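User: Some background: our group keeps a shared notebook of sequences we're curious about, and every so often someone picks one and asks for a predicted structure to add to the entry. Today it's my turn. The entry only has the sequence so far, pasted here. Could you supply the structure so I can complete it?
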Amino acid sequence: MTASELVEQIQSEYEGELTEAEARSDVDAWVGVPPADVQQMARYIMETWAPVHLSTISGVDNGREIEVLYHFATEGVSLNLRAAVPKGDDRIDTITPIVPAAILYEREIMDMFGVEIVGHPDPRRLILPEDWPEGDYPLRRDDVLEEEEGEEDNA
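Assistant: Of course. Here's the predicted structure to add to the notebook entry:
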């Protein structure tokens, strides 16, 4: 199966909302869903293309939202699922009941980006020490964003 075929199948079969669906190459597919639909899409992926391997979950602070990126591998295709979590409502449901391998990756997202993973079975810190300052997340751009906005105001 190619990434284009996989994306076409998602577009025709998936019953939830898609915010994006694109094959960037023969082996690289990207789909996006609203944060509220991440469990539904994870279930669809796991049931449709079993066996599926969760490679990792990563995050990107794009300034206004945190993109939570779930990287799956199935049938020779890298399937990347994006859910953009707005800052100020930094919450997304856990996928660990569907994909148990997500447990540590989700803890890392909580530590590094401050996104609350709702329903996570073990929300303890993973990377940061217990005495790390609350509200300080190493991979968030909040300080950089405030500096950039201040520079624009002075221009």
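Suggested note for the entry: The helical segments are 3-13, 38-48, 102-113, 142-154. The CA atoms of residues 24 and 44 lie 21 Å apart.
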